[in-house]
Amino acid sequence: MALIVQKYGGSSVADAESIKRVAKRIVDTRRAGHDVVVAVSAMGDTTDELLELAHDVAPIPAPRELDMLLSSGERISMALLAMTIHSMGFEARSFTGSQAGMITDSHHGKARIVDVTPVRLREALDEGAIVIVAGFQGFNRDTRDITTLGRGGSDTTAVALAAALNADVCEIYSDVDGIFTADPRVIPRARKLDRISSEEMLELAANGAKVLYIRAVEYARRHGVLIHARSTFSSAEGTYVLGEGMQAPRPSEGEAMEEPIVAGVATDLSQAKITVAGVPDVPGKAAEIFKIVAKSGANVDMIVQNVSAASTGRTDISFTLPKADASSAIKALAAEQSDVGFENLLHDDQIGKLSVVGAGMRTHSGVSAILFEALSAGGINIEMISTSEIRISVVLRGSDLAEAARTVHSAYGLDSEIEAIVHAGTGR
Ligand code: ASP
Ligand code: MG
C-alpha cells in the first residue's frame, strides 16, 4: 500500500462529465489499496474568467482581493470532486490551501511555499478518507491572508503535498500522455519519453515547454519527489521525472538502449529582442546598460555583443527578454541614452527561440553541429546563439520557428513512427 498524490489540471475537471471521470480514477486508486491525496485545479478556464471579471470591475485589482477571488476557483472543483466521490460510495474530504497547512510568504499572486503542515490531511487519511486539496493557494501567517502561487501553481501544490506527506509518487495528470520530446501541437511526430532527468525537464520548462510548471519541478528536485506525468484519458504509463539517484518504479522496455543524447526540443514565442546600437566600445558600457535594464524589472535571457567596427569604435549589444518586459526596458534605456552614449534602440517582437536539451551533451561532441546543419539545410537564418552545459538555444524569426523545430527534431532522430494524440488541447 502506497501513498499517492494525484494532481488534476483544469482541463481534466472542466465539466461534470470530466469530474466523474477523474473521480472514478481516484476511487480506482483507492480500491487498489492506496491512500490518495488529490490536488485539483479550477474547472476549465475558470481562473482566466475570474481574472477577466476582476479587470472588468477594476483597472488594477487589489492583489489581496484578487487572490481571494482566484482561490475560489479551486474551492469549486474540490467540493464538486468530493461530492462525486461520496456518490460513488467512498469517503472524501476537501480542504482549502490554508486548511491543508500550505504556508506561503506574503507575495500575492506569486507566493512561495515556505512550510507545509498537513495535520488535518493526516487525520483524514488515518480515518480512511480520500483527501482533496485546492491547488494553487496558500496562507500567510503574518498577514493571515489567502495567497495564490502563480498561474499553473497547482502542480506545485501537488509536489509540496507529496514532499510533506512523504508520498511514494506524485502523479500529475493532464490531457497529454506524458512529457514529449517536443510540444506535440508544434511537432506531431514528437515522441513520449518514458523518463527524463529533472535537470533536463527544468531546462525544457525554462525554455518554453509548458507541460510541467517550473517551480513544481524545482520543488520536486529539492525535496526528492518522484513525479509521474500522465494522461487523464488513458491508464498508460506516462513519463517519470527523475531527480538525482532516483529510479523509475518499473524499468521500461528498451532499458538496455543507450540514453539518447538529446532529450527534447523546446520552442518559445514569448520573447522579444532589443538591440542597443552604436554603443561606445569602452569598459563599463555593458554594466551601465544591464544595470538600467535590471532596474526596469526586466529578466534578461540571451545577450550578444558584436565585434566593434574599427572605424567607429562602436558596437551593438542585443539581448532577449519576455515580451511583457520590453516596453519598460526600452523606456528606461531611452531615458539614459545620452549618459550611456549609444546611438539608437531597436525593438523586435517577432523572434522565436528554439532550444535543444540533453544531458548527453556533456560527454558527446558534434551535438551543436547537427543543429546548425539542420537549420542550414532548411534555409533558416540564426540570429543569436547561446549554450549551457546541457542546452543549445538559437533565436530565429518567429515565423520560422515551427518549421525549424520540426527539422531539428528529426535531425536528432527524435521523430516517432506515429503521430502523438492530443486529447483535449491545452496540455494542462
Ligand atoms: N487554476 C490556476 C491556473 O489556471 C492554477 C492551475 O491551474 O494550476 O493557473
Ligand atoms: Mg488552470
TrEMBL record:
Matches recorded under Pfam families: AA_kinase (PF00696), ACT_9 (PF22468)
UniProt pathway annotation: Amino-acid biosynthesis; L-lysine biosynthesis via DAP pathway; (S)-tetrahydrodipicolinate from L-aspartate: step 1/4; Amino-acid biosynthesis; L-threonine biosynthesis; L-threonine from L-aspartate: step 1/5; Amino-acid biosynthesis; L-methionine biosynthesis via de novo pathway; L-homoserine from L-aspartate: step 1/3
Superkingdom of this protein's organism: Bacteria
Reactions that this protein is recorded to catalyse: L-aspartate + ATP = 4-phospho-L-aspartate + ADP
Keyword Transferase in record: yes
Family: Belongs to the aspartokinase family.
Name recorded for this polypeptide: Aspartokinase
